[in-house]
Target: Ficolin-1
Amino acid sequence: RLEHVAEIKMLRYILFLSVHYLLWFPVENVCGETLDSSTIYDYNCDVQIDVVKTFIKELQDVRKREDIILAQISLIETKLQSVEEQLSVRKSVASSCLEAAAESFKTGVYNITLEKFSDTPFAVYCNEEVDYGGWLVIQRRVSDAVDFDRDWREYKSGFGVLDENYWIGLEKLHAFTSSCQHELYIEMQKYSGESYYARYSEFVVGSESEGYPLRILGTYAGTAGDSLKYHLGAKFTTRDHDNDRKCAVYFEGAWWFKKCYYSHLNGPYGQRRKGIDWRGIAENESMQSAQMMIRPTEKCLRRMSLKAK
Model:
């Protein structure tokens, strides 16, 4: 596009010289002759010269205006190129773990973007080991290295280490689950070594203005027992943002408490009571590990495919 601007400038310059020559050459040839006997003819020559000079001045004014227009075109071209480059970068960054790990099929840290949250890419942990992969880890407990008894601000923004103990943050969780339909997969393991899972066909967390409620929870499947359905509709509670009888103060951690809980995966680590609980597995017995993951459903993928077209 920029080379076209240069071509226009060159053609314009050639045209200007041609017009200048065609207008000025006949006048100089005719009016430059010695015609002392004809004052009328001299007068006509003067008039023609004035007309040509006026026309040339007008051409010069047009040229100045054209320079301004061409400069504006060049500026627009530069800005357009910048926008195209930005769009290219955005298209090259995945929007889910299904896309991010599509080539490597390896579990680990990837960068993705989420239009409803931010234009800036951010790091997430993708799990490729469960049910053909594509899972985005939103919570993980594997040790007592990170304290989960935190305030509302920290649970909103997220905390921990991506590949260890981790909480993704309620704002991202809301953005993911409200932008497109997601399913939920929870893995848990007892200190004795037995492993369990709970899977829900849909999972939606509301906005902060609503209290980040557990708005939708789909059909359950698994071996852990359905200990999350009880919390459906409950608002999220932290020690400094109580939405249910100070459950977070008494049991520590934060959760979708509801007088108080049947499940609580953000409780204190390593305790038999008031710990990482899932009553469908055992009452008053804390889990050794827990991991929550979400993945776009087939309905979501079809929607994204149609949007891309």
Remarks:
- Residues 39-92 form the longest helix (54 residues).
- DSSP finds seven helices and 13 strands in the chain.
